[in-house]
Amino acid sequence: MTRETSSGIDARPLVDRILRAAIERRASDLHIEPVGADYEIRSRVDGVLHADQRLDAESGRAAVARLMVMARLLTYRLDVPQEGRVTLGGAGGAGDVELRLSVMPTIHGLRAAVRMPADAIQAAVLDGLGLPDAVRAALERFAAGDSGMLLFTGPAGSGKTTSMYATLRHIVTSASGLSVVALEDPVERRLSGVTQIEVSPFGQLTYERALRSMLRQDPQVLMLGEIRDAATASLAIQASLSGHRLLTALHAATAAGAIARLLEMGIEPYQITSSLSLVVAQRLLRRSDGSGGYLGRIPVAEMVVMDAALKKAVLARADTDTLADAYQRQATYRPMAMVAEDRIAEGLTDAAEARRVLGPAIVAAESAEAEKK
């Protein structure tokens, strides 16, 4: 990692170089962070943060200030968090790309985090995601239906939004004449054929208010970026019960955890069993490049359908262990750990990476790799 110093700098070429280097590396995020007397530039590639270079304090402050100017933020406010968008022209030989900027005050100065363009690093079509065949087929069946709720779950950075966008695009391209609306905070990428609305949890146009109004605008397909509270969850359930197809995401470690969260939010069990069609839980594993390193990521996912046994458990307000036991008996259920074993056997990843992401569940995968060697 190099350290760059400058005096009385023009931060424009510095910031341009940093941003374009991050795009070339296919980074998903870029951090410019004050660390003691310096600033550190770090980029997240394939889910892992890498230290790229250090700047002296003057250069680091100038770089953050330049980003704030590009995002039309208040450069004189050093005491409050701010968020905005940065447009970078002609990145990677393409047209303009839009980046999201978040600035946060720390004891050493302002810290900037840039979310890089999703389209540059992630596939946006269902066939290109690399999902297990059974999961992709289930998403295609949902896309061909006319009602119900599709729930993606997993921790932050597990690919939920990418899978949701790809499914929505599949709906738009496989059927004409549909009214499709997406409510997002923020809009991650532009989708042709979709009315996209950016909501703000702290502004006038919240998820709850936007969704309540959109239900009066004759949509057939709704995408809700994330369920964050009980009011939004209730409206999402009502939308799917009233004949809409609804795609959304919920932060939970497992499908059982996602269903349990809906119950904890006060959703009646009969509403969940009547509306929820499919839950897809997923993670992302780094892809082996054949030389002992990694390049890109691949998903491992499991799907859960609302069958009779799971409905019975939900109606009984069962705990997560009982819910999981109910769906693990489904003929179509294949846990993520087994999917990871498949990917290891195919040489697409390795047991160390699967263990890093999935934890103890991948012990069997290590044994499988050892036997292969």
Q: Give the termini separation.
A: 36 Å
String of helices and strands? EHEEEHEEEHHEHEEHEHEHHEEHHHHH
Q: What's the main sheet like? A: 7 strands, mixed
The parts where pLDDT drops under 50 for at least 5 residues are: 365-370
Q: From the alpha-carbon coordinates, what is the Rg to the nearest angstrom?
A: 22 Å
And the CATH topology of the largest domain? Rossmann fold
How would you describe the shape?
globular
Rounded average pLDDT: 88
User: Class of the largest domain, according to the CATH hierarchy?
Assistant: Alpha Beta
Corresponding CATH superfamily of the largest domain: P-loop containing nucleotide triphosphate hydrolases
Strand content: 25-35%
What is the total domain count? Answer: 2
Strand order of the largest sheet: 1-4-3-2-7-6-5
Overview of the molecule:
- The protein has 373 residues and is of the alpha/beta class.
- The protein contains 14 helices and 14 strands.
- The chain folds into two domains: 2-118, Beta-Lactamase (2-Layer Sandwich); 122-334, 3-Layer(aba) Sandwich (Rossmann fold).
- The protein starts with a strand and ends with a helix.
- It has helices spanning 11-24, 57-70, 118-121, 133-144, 160-174, 207-214, 230-241, 255-264, 269-275, 308-315, 320-327, 336-345, 351-358, 363-372; strands at residues 2-4, 29-35, 38-45, 48-56, 82-88, 97-106, 109-115, 148-153, 180-184, 195-198, 221-224, 245-250, 276-288, 294-305.
- 38% of the residues lie in helices and 27% in strands.
- Residues 365-370 have low confidence and may be disordered.
